[in-house]
Amino acid sequence: MRKRVLSGILASEETYLSHLEALLLPMKPLKAAATTSQPVLTVQQIETIFFKVPELYEIHKEFYDSLLPRVQQWSHHQRVGDLFQKQVTLLYKPVDRVTRSTLVLHDLLKHTPSSHPDYPLLQDALRISQNFLSSINEESTPRRQSMTVKKGENRQLLKDSFMVELVEGARKLRHVFLFTDLLLCAKLKKQIGGKSQQYDSKWYIPLSDLTFQTAEESEPLPIPQAPDEELDAIKIKISSLRSEIQRERRANKGSKAMERLKKKLSEQELLLLLNSPNMPLRVHNRSGKSYIFLISSDYERAEWKEVIREQQKKCFKTFSLTSMELQMLTNSCLKLQTVHQLPLTVNKEEDESTGLYGFLNVIVHSASGLKQSLNLYCTLEVDSFGIFVNKAKTRVYRYTTEPKWNEEFEIELEGSQTLRLLCYEKSYNKAKMNKEDGESTDRIMGKGQIALDPPMLQGKDWQRTVIPMNGIEVKISMKFTSREFSLKRMSSRKPMGVFGVNISSVTKRERSKVPYIVRQCLEEIERRGMEEVGIYRVSGVATDIQALKTAFDTNNKDVSVMMSEMDVNAIAGTLKLYFRELPEPLFTDELYPNFAGGIALSDSVAKESCMLNLLLSLPEPNLVTFLFLLDHLKRVAEKESVNKMSLHNLATVFGPTLLRPAEKDSKIPTNPTQPITMGDSWSLEVMSQVQVLLYFLQLETIPTPDSKRQSILFSTEV
């Protein structure tokens, strides 16, 4: 991103230099004529007209000539701040150039890590530039983010973003602009014949007339949702195209092939961006219509509501725009916008991080700064394929100003770049729950986020940090384990335990068909977890999971009592951990390549025959345990309308856990310069594992006359 900003600066400087050169051309002959008996202009007139043009040319030429080679030989650690520092010290005229330089420095600082050697230099350059602008009473930011309206008032842009609008049951991509007095929804027109981009206004609401509606207050409108399988297919295509682009880049092949691949990738990512968000944000115009935006997370929805409500405190009068005023406002959006591009891979620089793949352990320690005692809990969100998903939730800490959760969660990352944390006040008034909106009366007390920076998370030690949010501070610790290490299945050093011990050894020792741990966990989840939102997807508390692991490993007689007192997500997490730590996956290392090949068959009859034969080839304890789990997962999916866990969601959670091979000799390549950012080859493999489990989940029955299979199913001894 830094390189892209600097490339734009170079292009701007090049244009400016050409303009200065055009001014310098007539200057010399005019100066020569000034000393003759018939001068065109006097020396004083020439000095006035061409004031400081030669000096300006030299300053900008030196700046351009120094910046160009640094951008051409770009690296992450490249310094440019010294050049800006020198330039703004010299630049006092024209004022417009200083203003532009200030805006550029704002953008550049935004994309420069605070640890970078450029950061203090750029800060100093920005300070000098801003001081100069202040001295002549002209602030740079309003110039860029405002336009003059009637009576000389300024209409400033506060926030803008690409969003999905639901229009007559169809999803439409919009660019939404929040100004100091209104909310404008616009559509970016397609560029035709090289014309510059333009916006088309769809609607606007004065902030004094805007209200937020709940599902109960508005007309019922079903939200069309793409099947999970469709979204998964899009992700597979995205991962495949990213891999192809990487191969093309390494092979240094022609740009035409690369451009074709990038275009396809852009189309698929846009499709995912359009179809993924399902959380409604309903806005209503008191004097007219209602509108619905679809957002991917509670964090973003709260962000929009907060900034709008804060600004509404300053808006009292209603108004309407003439068609000419609306057109002028819409035209100004191109210059005022702060979000210029969709969050697509093709819009990123080659050296930008593709995110982290692996497991992030997060300890939510405590919160401080609360002014009154409340019932508080936190949720954690991370991004995957550019969409944020809720991954974990702490317990409710009752009536306190200083909650001390000290809860640890293990969160799986798939190309993740940001961790978000939201702090809620728990409401116990169930009558007011608004399930259709996915929004309850639980009030967001604060929210914050932190970038998942690969260099910071490189070490094995815990990284402690504080997330500030609306006057509240939440202390957390993080530790990252990359795919390279998290893939390995290890045999337990405690042969009499159950974790990390071969499943056949456990069932033989217990004289059962299905391990005791599997039966106990499923029984408890069926008793009180079938309607838990996000069951198996939301992480349980890591300390509770470890306590249960120890209890099962030591054959603790009180394990059932412990389970009854624990959060159901911890029990689900214990079950997932058991399968993940098996020294060999439930589907076995030997048969894994065959399952991966079978699911890829295009002929449905051949696929069914192949997959069923492979399934029935599993060792007896593996097969019976899998069928026992399969029946349970189908019953969980029957409650999808409440728990939000479809067959596909369950396959996404359990597929890699049940199929991932032991990887004694890891086949996944590692890059010594980026050892913790593994990418799309892994995503494709994971998605294949998901498809295998989904195939069996979607089969109504698994028919076979095999006597061995019959004896297993009808045996009462499990």
The number of helices is: 24
Spans of 5+ residues with little confidence (pLDDT < 50)?
A: 137-144, 432-438, 664-678, 707-717
Q: What share of the residues lie within helices?
A: 40-55%
* Beta content: 15-25%
Main sheet record: 8 strands, antiparallel
Which class best fits the helix and strand makeup?
A: alpha+beta
- Basic shape: elongated
Number of strands: 17
Radius of gyration: 31 Å
Assembly type: single chain
What separation lies between the terminal Cα atoms? 58 Å
Task: State mean pLDDT (0 to 100 scale).
Answer: 82
Descriptive account of the structure:
The chain is of the alpha+beta class. It contains 24 helices and 17 strands. Strands 1, 2, 3, 4, 5, 6, 7 and 8 form an 8-stranded antiparallel sheet that branches. Strands 10, 11, 12, 14 and 15 form a 5-stranded antiparallel sheet that branches. The chain is elongated, with a radius of gyration of 31 Å. The model is unreliable at 137-144, 432-438, 664-678 and 707-717 (pLDDT under 50).
At a glance:
With 718 residues, the protein is an alpha+beta fold.
Structural topology:
Elements (H helix, E strand, L loop, with lengths): L1 H33 L8 H7 L3 H20 L8 H10 L4 H16 L7 H18 L4 H6 E3 L5 E14 L2 E10 L2 E7 L10 E8 L3 E4 L14 H24 L3 H21 L3 E7 L4 E6 L2 H15 L10 H14 L19 E13 L5 E11 L2 E7 L3 E4 L3 E13 L1 E8 L17 E9 L11 E7 L2 E11 H4 L16 H8 L5 H13 L13 H12 L5 H7 L2 H13 L11 H8 L4 H12 L4 H18 L2 H4 L3 H13 L20 H19 L8 H7 L5
Antiparallel strand pairs: 1-2, 2-3, 2-8, 3-4, 4-5, 6-7, 7-8, 9-13, 9-17, 10-11, 10-12, 10-14, 14-15, 16-17
Helix pairs in contact: 1-3, 3-4, 4-6, 5-6, 8-9, 8-23, 14-17, 15-17, 17-22, 18-19, 18-23, 22-23
